[in-house]
Amino acid sequence: MLKPFEKPIYVTRPFLPPLAEFAAGLEEIWDNAWLTNNGPVIKRYQKELCDYFATENLCLFNNGTLALQIALQGLRLSGEVITTPFTFVATTHALYWNKIRPVFVDIEPEHYTLDPAKVEAAITPWTTAILAVHVYGYPCRLQELADIARRYKLLLLYDAAHAFGVTVDGKSIGHYGDLSMFSFHATKLYHSLEGGMLMFSNPNLKKLFDYLKNFGFENELEVVMAGTNAKMNEVQALMGLQVLGHLEGIISRRKQIDAIYRSRLAPIPGVQIPSLPADNVRYNHAYFPVEIDAQAFGMSRDALQAALQKYNVFTRRYFYPLVSDFACYRSLSINDPLATAKRVAQRILTLPIYDSLALPDVERICDMIQGLSRACGQKPLNDSEDIGASAVTAV
Length: 395
Ligand code: T4K
Known about the structure:
The chain is 39% helix and 14% strand. α3 (64-74) packs parallel to α4 and α3 packs across α7. It is built from 14 helices and 15 strands. By secondary structure, it is α/β, with parallel strands linked by helices. The longest helix is centred in the middle third of the chain and has 19 residues, at 247-265. The model is unreliable at 383-395 (pLDDT under 50). Bound molecules: ligand T4K. Residues 10-14, 63-65, 87-88, 90-91, 133, 159, 161-162, 183, 185-187, 196, 314, 316, 318 line the site of ligand T4K.
């Protein structure tokens, strides 16, 4: 008989460095009485990230959304940008804030990233760039997208919000494409409370982005462009620095959780798990998405989510609804039927994964899902909403 968890299990929890470690760092900030505007901690942080990513071409921001908005503005993009509807809404908002028309195309079914064939079909004389998302940390079809971008002379931009720590052929994923945006939000496996970063191939962009995030100040007396305020502060930088020191432990812990989910859930009919990326990819286990086939599982994705909630397990439907279905984008005309994205959005459920999630608790979540599947297998599907509720007591 499975009992609900006493405390809620969320889809994620931030890694927190030992409090004493963080307090020691705060003392330094107190002594400096320097809280933002390019203080000593952020300078140290920037340098450590440059070492980590093996590049000088990166720039820090107060969050990922503003980083992306500033990237699009700095690159002076206009017209149409081809992008995915299967993402967090900030990807599209960043285009909208730059008066760029998002052109949604479908995703591929294996790892839910932009489908290169659909990208090529959507190119028009107004297309200026491709904005693809390494969703859940799964690398996009890097080579195919790069070929298309080169042939059509388009910029290739990546929303790498989920992809910190991912490497491809031994290089950080930020080295692919013209520019990548990383989010350091508290819900990410790597975070700086909130924060964001741009990494880019053209070294001249560094100065431009530094202006744009700091009001366009050249010096006290000169403003050279209409920038905004998107600076990261010293406390964010301190958190980012300290979490960086724990990154490998965070990823290996998540890898263990991923392995348990995979081995326990794969045999359950109706639970479809995306494959791990190819061997040349070091994956970061940022999320654990599964697709629920209602017929085979015996219960819809939504009913499973509701049933798990009764066990105090709070999964999320990242990314349902599709961005193209939100009220603010519904009026856009979309040529691509988005068949895969629509199907996946109806079936996707992201399960709890974070470094401090105890392995026996992961087993228990698997027991719950397995039990719910068995409990529902016997009953007709159109009862599924009720089955979800009654199954909790039945297991
Ligand atoms: N592009 C992509 C592809 C993105 O996924 C995101 C952000 C962005 C761009 C934009 O980057 P940022 O501007 O955010 O840097 C969360 C995050 O707020 C958002 O950053 C993230 N994507 C998105 C996927 O997820 P919500 O609305 O799901 O967050 P929330 O507050 O419901 O948190 C989820 C769970 O995390 C909670 O149930 C409990 C746990 N949690 C959350 C917070 C904030 C904690 O345990 N502690 C916390 O401090 O959007």
